[in-house]
Write a structure and sequence with these properties.
Length: 366
């Protein structure tokens, strides 16, 4: 496998964004930390895809006997085209309508450092809370291409493994130093185990490490990931209510393991099966394609804690919940209504704004 498109991974994006939305819109009442898992799934997927892209670029540079400056430039241009337009358009609209706290925190938002602000202050930012994860990804993109392109290939897998150790160790340091759980949750270095595992998977798949791929293509690999994740969530609830040693230090690692085993299973299949076909269903693939917009917009469509009184979607939700009809007032109907609304908004954004701009990437191939 080189740099070809893998349809089922858009299905993984669908799963990830659905977990985030359902958890956020329910007010964290699903029963397990679904949003945490969804965000971590995005991190692992980013680690996998970015590493794969960079490995292909590195191989091409060697074949053409050129330095890596060209590939670095192309990488950053392509990332800028995909990420910046809708992000900054959203910020400008929020400033125009004076949505708090965007004007007050404009520096942190415009420089992709909201996660650092949240980590330092140990409190959230209301309607723009969710942008912390985009800041993490952008900070990762700044340095990671240098690691893949300039580090000797024989050291790459070990370095990615070191990412995992560093990340878990930093989370442990923050826990034992008495810091708020928020700090080790949102900082970029404390997310490196997710990116590192995704990178290791990309390395194994790109260079066809059959001992790894043969394990990944077995259904038992996903069952192992589910067991590790479920056991971790169970331990969290057994240790104490709220955030504790297990949730702060080990939950993201368990989420990363489950995510990488799911992605690994999907990409390693020689023949299509029921699970790969599920993740390749066209509605899921489409939602996966527009998931970036869905993620950015969802907190402004509805926020369980910070939606302003004039929010039209909040008004509909309130009417449903006060209708006296058990079905209409139920949580699934609320989430489904909001989901359809944000899909509509993100679809318009994709076809009118994002997709035309995204076509510019064709001019900047590796």
């Amino acid at each position: 496998m080189k740099n070809n498109y893998i349809k089922s991974l858009d299905g993984v994006r669908f799963l990830a964004v659905t977990l985030v939305l359902a958890d956020h819109w329910s007010g964290d009442k699903i029963g397990f930390p679904a949003a945490y898992l969804g965000v971590c799934m995005f991190f692992v997927l980013s680690g996998f895809l970015i590493t794969r892209i960079l490995l292909s670029a590195k191989e091409k540079d060697s074949a053409l006997n050129r330095g890596h400056r060209f590939s670095l430039k192309q990488f950053y241009i392509r990332r800028t085209i995909r990420i910046f337009p809708v992000y900054y358009l959203t910020l400008f609209i929020l400033i125009l309508f004076n949505v708090p706290p965007v004007r007050e925190k404009a520096f942190w938002l415009f420089t992709y450092m909201t996660n650092n602000y949240i980590g330092i202050k140990a409190h959230w930012l209301g309607s723009v809370d969710h942008l912390w994860s985009l800041a993490v990804e952008e900070q990762f993109y700044i340095f990671f291409p240098f690691v893949v392109l300039f580090l000797p290939l024989k050291h790459l897998a070990k370095t990615l493994g070191l990412f995992i150790l560093i990340s878990v160790s930093i989370r442990a340091y923050f826990y034992f130093s008495g810091a708020s759980w928020i700090t080790p949750y949102v900082l970029m270095p404390t997310c490196l185990d997710a990116f590192g595992l995704g990178g290791i998977l990309a390395y194994a798949a790109y260079y066809q490490k059959q001992n790894i791929l043969s394990f990944l293509r077995k259904p038992a690999s996903i069952l192992l990931g589910l067991f590790i994740y479920c056991a971790t969530v169970f331990l969290i609830k057994e240790v104490s209510e709220g955030h504790n040693l297990v949730s702060i230090i080990f939950l993201r690692l368990a989420e990363s393991i489950l995510s990488v085993l799911l992605i690994g299973y999907l990409i390693s299949q020689v023949k299509s099966n029921s699970l790969t076909r599920f993740f390749e269903l066209e509605p899921f693939v489409f939602i996966g394609k527009i998931s970036y917009g869905i993620y950015i917009y969802h907190n402004f469509v509805y926020n369980a804690y910070h939606s302003p009184a004039g929010n039209p979607f909040l008004k509909v939700v309130n009417r449903l919940q006060s209708s006296g009809n058990t079905v209409l007032a139920s949580l699934p109907v609320k989430v489904l209504f909001l989901y359809l609304a944000v899909i509509l908004i993100a679809s318009i954004s994709w076809f009118v704004f994002e997709k035309p701009i995204n076509k510019l990437k064709n001019r900047y191939g590796y």
